[in-house]
Amino acid sequence: MPTKTKILLVDDHPLVREGLANLIRQHPDLEVWGEAGGEAQALQLLAGGRPDLAVVDLSLENGSGLDLIKSIKALYPSVAMLVLSMHDESLYAERALRAGARGYLMKREAAQKVIQGIRTVLAGQLFVSERIAAQMAERFVTGRPAGGPTVELLSDRELEVFQLLGQGQSTRQIADHLHMGFKTVQAYCARIKEKLQLANATELLRSAMQWAERHGEE
User: Which of 38, 144, 170, 171 is deepest in the core (most CB within 10 A)?
Assistant: First the structure.
């Protein structure tokens, strides 16, 4: 009997995991190796064995999908990774690839596209939309994002702080949410203001809330 490709599903929504599992089971050469709702659970599963591929969302229970991708790349480099997320690919695809993923898909894509992405990544190739491929080519040629100051200039952690500010969280709440010191969050805010050329905390908060409104999850 041919060996099946083992896939780990990491998503904080049980219904999404169920839908993905049902889709994968329609293909006899693929199988769901395990399911996890968050970073800690995924790493616990991986400590006991190795799937061939992890399909990872960026929003997880008590953790970050980008952090999980970085951890898997460092600890289990043989595990390929494909991101399947609601987050805007124009902002997060390159970050996910730099973290260690080999592909990026928006959740609105058709089921056939998901399977295509899985097979492409398993074959050792990158899987991104034409839009992202063009964006990456532009960055390669110019060395910078097009236009003026943009959130693309922010590091992964700075973007996370910026996103939480836009969701209405205070600096103290962000510190608790990200398990870091209050002064550390303040330092991140200062760097964000500098990179985005914002004059003060009021402009930072306004910019974050406007960005969150445009890029909010469905």
Answer: 38
